[in-house]
């Protein structure tokens, strides 16, 4: 137990070093990026005096190390600075976007799992048969289809052509939608299931309808990896001695496959899925842009288009921190499951 | 023959072009029907512009400057951008020339009563005097109005002023509308008008160093008039375009509301006089307005208005096709047919106030030769660029000033596509065999890279010139152009220029005079013509 605590502390320390590195690299990046932010804020015909005033008000005339120290110190105090474009505080804007991004990442992960684990199992258990080839082909297609193309195609066909789904945006968040569900199913309504209370339920429906297409788009990309991992893990497990023993004692094949082999296969799969979640938080930029999903990705694209560096840095620091946290949690879980890794 | 025609027209010019700017009322100061300073010939004919008699009006001087610039060809004159919108068939609305969407003009059809607009990005805060960008203007200008305004074509109209006149050089007077109230219920007064103007042009007024001070260039301050409901606006010397400036810029705010609230509040609330008042504001997501019941004109046709954004053009197009929004901005050429064929949406396109051009630095080889510069204009098949690269949604230009602007010269046509003439002129210039590189930003203007590639393709087809494109980061390119030193600029670059004042001077002065902020050219005759024009006020 003591060694687990030490292991965790070590991981957290390493994580802090990584986040500090992220902050530093981001800060340096803005100085090797060509073009002054002033040229993006000031119109082309702005006078030199206007430019100077803008540069001054943004603190761009201070030496680099002073700007860096200021930034790190204020970050430690929880202050992410002020947007160049609008002058508003960065932190509330970034955290306001976090729920949308998390929702999408989690739902997309569920989509990926729901598609890929059955596919992996099928192709492992029916190796070299038609279902195996179909599953392999499908996962190959999944990984080679660009996100933005799949997203646009889904919108054109399922939303515009057939009208099954809205094309884009997120008019209501999951928390609000759930909140409304709780309100109507709360004690004052006798905990009745709110199935027919339309004005409230429509929030939840609305949220679901809007998240389906982006979640499929984002999730598909990860199905290939998980399918392959499941397939090879499953094949590995099916060749093990305990499977032969289980079969020998007459256990039904279904039980052998799903109760025993699949369970053991899932340990590395869960690790990878956990790590993918971190990638999804930062990697949803294109999907968010295609679906106008108001998350960190959309915010960071807008910020980049405006060379709004404090906002870019704020978004990326949060994304980096999310990645580090997910990694620490996955490491900790894995260490619990398999204490050997703590050495 | 040409000369006689000119002389007869010159007589009428003074009368016809008597700029209504001096008297105001419902007149249209940007009226261009005069076209008096007629120089009907093209560059190759005689007499040349310099031999013609001097113009007599401000507009005449500007037109003459445009003629000289056409002949001297400091640019490859490319396309006038169009503003291309998509709109649902459920609303009646036509696009405006000045890139603004006025939701007051959008009429929902049938039982529909709300309107939704999707633009490419959201506002940078709701203070109407603390930004300089179209997306923010499109939001705040639904609630805030100026003293003057413009109609769809760009002609000056009254808004909070009911009349305007030039009192003397450096002083103009606006008569103010009575019975106007802000959304908060406060009455609109001459003190509000003066305060709003001063908050823009004077850094110590209203707790804001407004980035819009350049937009009201020359204006030094404003004061309430004695007695009447009017405001006096002072300029540093004669300000020939002061009415054009106030028709485009200078949103009016409520003095006491501004003074009683802090910047964060002013940036997230609104208190204007316009037809829509703020209902709710969610930064980066959407702004919701409701119709202002006490508006001094008819209430807006729509009861409610929502403005949202989607950065991706295809996302906006799909929203429109699926009926999720009513008006979308910036439809790229490749998506136009999708909308035209959708059955429930259509395109509304209008020439904008933005011109795309290739500057050729006048003192760098080989562009120091007017023959070479003219050759470049003849080498480019502008008509094909407009029809193929821009799907026909653009105009051809042959002078720096756009049609419909004060100072536009109606008798100047775009350079004809003529490869032989181009090659001959290159020989004549002595720069045969020149190798040139066109610097272009990517994604800053509609199809900028594609236009640059087409231009270079045409020039490269000449037997005696070779050309290539260099892609540039816009900020980096702009930095080189704006440092006030021509020798650090690339000698040949593509850039765009928007001029919302509908007056030639605001294109010519910054871009083509010796001291312009973004100039690539210097010519004594042009400087002189523009100085003449700018020394003449409303009355000619």
Polypeptide structure, described:
The complex is a heterodimer of chains A (343) and B (540). The two termini of chain A are 13 Å apart. Chain A has one domain (94-342): MetI-like (MetI-like fold, Orthogonal Bundle). Chain A is built from 14 helices and no strands. In chain A, 76% of the residues lie in helices and 0% in strands. With 343 residues, chain A is mostly helical. Residues 189-198 of chain A have low confidence and may be disordered. Chain B is of the alpha+beta class and 540 residues long. In chain B, α2 (58-72) packs antiparallel against α16 and α15 packs antiparallel against α16 (524-534). Chain B has 16 helices and 19 strands. In chain B, a hairpin with a 5-residue loop joins β5 (148-150) and β6 (156-158). Classes of the chains: A mainly alpha (343), B alpha+beta (540). The interface between A and B is large, with 49 and 41 residues.
């Amino acid at each position: 137990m003591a060694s687990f605590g030490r292991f965790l502390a070590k991981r957290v320390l390493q994580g802090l070093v990584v986040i500090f590195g992220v902050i530093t690299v981001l800060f340096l990046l803005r100085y090797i990026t060509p073009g002054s932010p002033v040229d993006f804020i000031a119109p082309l015909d702005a006078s030199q005096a206007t430019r100077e005033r803008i540069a001054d008000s943004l603190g761009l005339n201070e030496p680099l190390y002073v700007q860096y120290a200021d930034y790190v110190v204020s970050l430690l105090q929880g202050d992410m600075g002020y947007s160049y474009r609008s002058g508003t505080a960065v932190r509330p804007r970034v955290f306001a976007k976090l729920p949308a991004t998390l929702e999408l990442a989690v739902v997309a992960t569920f989509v990926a799992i729901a598609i890929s684990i059955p596919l992996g199992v099928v192709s492992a258990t029916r190796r070299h048969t038609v279902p195996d080839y179909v599953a392999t082909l499908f996962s190959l297609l999944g990984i080679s289809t660009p996100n933005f193309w799949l997203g646009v195609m889904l919108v054109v066909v399922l939303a515009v052509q057939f009208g099954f789904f809205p094309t884009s945006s997120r008019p209501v968040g999951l928390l609000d939608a759930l909140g409304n569900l709780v309100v109507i199913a709360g004690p004052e309504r006798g905990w009745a299931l709110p199935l027919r209370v339309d004005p409230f339920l429509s929030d939840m429906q609305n949220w679901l309808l809007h998240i389906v297409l982006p979640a499929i788009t984002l999730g598909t990309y990860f199905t290939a990896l998980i399918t392959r991992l499941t397939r090879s893990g499953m094949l590995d497990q099916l060749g093990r001695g305990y499977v032969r023993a289980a079969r020998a004692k007459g256990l039904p094949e279904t039980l052998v496959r799903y109760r025993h082999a699949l369970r053991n296969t899932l340990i590395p799969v869960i690790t990878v899925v956990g790590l993918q979640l971190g990638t999804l938080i930062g990697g949803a930029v294109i999907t968010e842009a295609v679906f106008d999903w108001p998350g960190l990705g959309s915010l960071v694209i807008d910020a980049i288009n405006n060379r709004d560096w404090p906002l870019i840095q704020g978004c990326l620091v949060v994304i980096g921190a999310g990645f580090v946290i997910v990694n620490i949690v996955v490491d900790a879980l894995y260490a619990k499951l398999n204490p050997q890794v703590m050495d | 023959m040409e000369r006689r025609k000119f002389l007869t027209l010159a007589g009428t010019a003074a009368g016809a072009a008597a700029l209504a700017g001096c008297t105001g009322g419902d007149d249209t100061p940007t009226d261009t029907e005069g076209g008096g300073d007629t120089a009907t010939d093209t560059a190759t004919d005689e007499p040349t512009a310099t031999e013609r008699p001097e113009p007599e009006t401000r507009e005449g001087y500007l037109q003459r400057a445009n003629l000289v610039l056409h002949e001297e060809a400091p640019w490859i004159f490319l396309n006038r951008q169009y503003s291309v919108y998509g709109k649902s068939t459920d609303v009646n609305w036509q696009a405006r020339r000045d890139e603004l969407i006025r939701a007051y003009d959008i009429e929902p059809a049938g039982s529909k009563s709300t309107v939704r607009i999707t633009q490419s990005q959201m506002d940078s805060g709701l203070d109407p005097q603390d930004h300089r960008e179209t997306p923010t203007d499109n939001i705040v200008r639904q609630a805030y109005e100026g003293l003057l305004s413009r109609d769809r074509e760009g002609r000056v109209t009254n808004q909070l002023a009911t009349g305007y006149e030039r009192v003397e050089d450096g002083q103009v007077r606006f008569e103010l509308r009575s019975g106007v109230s802000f959304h908060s219920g406060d009455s609109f007064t001459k003190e509000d008008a003066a305060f709003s103007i001063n908050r823009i042009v004077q850094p110590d007024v209203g707790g804001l160093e407004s980035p819009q001070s350049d937009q009201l260039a020359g204006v030094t301050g404003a004061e309430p008039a004695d007695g009447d409901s009017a405001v006096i606006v002072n300029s540093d010397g004669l300000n020939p375009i002061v009415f054009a400036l106030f028709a485009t810029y200078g949103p009016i705010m409520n003095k006491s509301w501004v003074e009683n609230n802090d910047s964060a509040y002013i940036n997230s609330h609104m208190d204007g006089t316009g037809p829509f008042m703020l209902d709710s504001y969610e930064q980066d997501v959407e702004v919701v307005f409701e119709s202002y019941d006490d508006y001094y004109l008819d209430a807006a046709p729509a009861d409610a208005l929502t403005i949202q954004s989607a950065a991706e053009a295809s996302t906006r197009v799909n929203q429109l096709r699926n009926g999720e929004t009513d008006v979308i901005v910036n439809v790229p050429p490749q998506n136009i047919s999708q909308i035209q064929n959708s059955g429930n949406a259509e395109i509304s396109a209008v020439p904008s106030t933005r011109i795309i051009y290739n500057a050729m630095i006048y003192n760098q080889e080989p562009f120091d030769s007017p023959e070479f510069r003219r050759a470049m204009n003849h080498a480019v098949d502008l008509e094909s660029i407009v029809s193929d690269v821009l799907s026909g949604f653009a105009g051809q230009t042959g002078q720096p000033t756009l049609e419909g602007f004060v100072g536009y010269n109606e008798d100047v046509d775009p350079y004809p596509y003529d490869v032989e003439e181009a090659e001959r002129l290159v020989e004549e210039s002595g720069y045969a065999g020149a190798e040139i590189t066109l610097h272009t930003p990517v994604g800053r203007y509609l199809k900028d890279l594609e236009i640059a590639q087409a231009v270079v393709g045409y020039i490269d087809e000449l037997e005696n010139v070779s050309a290539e494109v260099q892609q540039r980061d816009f900020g980096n390119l702009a930095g080189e152009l704006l440092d006030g030193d021509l020798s650090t600029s690339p000698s040949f670059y593509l850039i765009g220029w928007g001029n919302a004042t509908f007056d030639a001077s605001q294109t010519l002065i910054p871009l083509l005079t010796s001291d312009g902020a973004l100039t690539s050219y210097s010519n004594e005759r042009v400087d002189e013509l523009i100085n003449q024009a700018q020394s003449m006020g409303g009355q000619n």
